[in-house]
Amino acid sequence: MKVAFLGLGVMGYPMAGHLQAAGFDVCVYNRTSGKADKWCEEHGGESAPTPAQAVVGCKIVMICVGNDDDVRQVVLGEAGVFSALEEGAILIDHTTASATLARELAEVAAKAGYYFLDAPVSGGQAGAENGALTVMVGGEENIYQQAKPVFDAYSKFSKLLGSTGSGQLAKMVNQICIAGAVQGLAEGLNFAMRAGLDGEALIETISKGAAGSWQMDNRHATMLKGEYEFGFAVDWMRKDLGIAFAEAVSNGAELSVAKMVDGFYEEVQKMGGARWDTSSLLARLNK
User: Which helix (H) or strand (E) holds 7?
Assistant: First the structure.
């Protein structure tokens, strides 16, 4: 099957590579063409200079870019996906974006004879590189089943969570939960350091009990070393939390802890840590 992957950032680059390795005929597009050329040299496949040219002849098209505006440009722009997509094709948006945008694109797609799934991912750069992402999907069941072989190429788990927008709403929940978990871990490690405990011995012990988490298992070692170059950037986390805050205004949810942690991330940005990973919450406690 010929497919297109649009957006070769830290997530999209390896995701597209897994598709090519799984036997799909992949055409890639990236705003910076040099990265697309590099991907083709590494993985084979082909590249195109515009989204419209990339999707010609494709049954399934995936997008993984920065934000709502980026998605609109790639999909609805003059040389965008919807200017050249063939009838009956499926557009999958892996960008972490708003549920409002998902519904907007689904409506436009339906009128034009296309199908749409919002499908943000979790697992970070390591998950993308290892083909072990989790995919949260919104859309129709029969379209999800058609797309599932694509998801299987770069994920360990995918699930349809409801109608259009449900994937993006699930990703908001994911980021809300991460914010609290990382702040708790940062405070715990800071407390341990100030108390003179052996950090590694401590984590080896408490990770086996109720305090254990993915963040603890995967981030404690680099946090103890003061190294913050191993995951999802603070800038992007604040963007994602902002999407959740906007949604909470309409649904009435209380996000007091998430808002507090967002403020802490703002402090990290002011420390020069905009591109540090989300575990850098410890840095503001250790300064």
Answer: none
Site of tokens 């003059």: 78
Are the C-beta atoms of residues 100 and 138 closer than 8 Å to each other? no
Burial 25-61 (b: 16+ CB within 10 A, else e): ebbbbbbeeebbeebbeebebebbebbbebbeebbbb
Structural domain harbouring 24 = 2-163
Contact of 127 with 135, CB cutoff 8 Å: no
This model's pTM is above 0.90: yes
The yes-or-no answer on residue 38 being catalytic is: no
Q: What is the pLDDT of residues 33-67, one digit of tens each?
A: 999 999 999 999 999 999 999 999 999 999 999 99
Q: Residue 189 to residues 26, 283, 286: CA-CA distances in angstroms?
A: 44, 11, 10
Number of domains in the chain: 2
For residues 281 and 182, state if they share a domain: yes
Torsion of CA 64, 65, 69, 71, to 10 degrees: -30
Nearest partner of 26 among 65, 42, 110, 179, judged by Cα: 42
Contact 180, 258 (CB under 8 A): yes
User: How many other C-beta atoms can be found within 10 angstroms of the C-beta atom of residue 174?
Assistant: 18
Which one is catalytic: 2, 171, 225, 239?
171
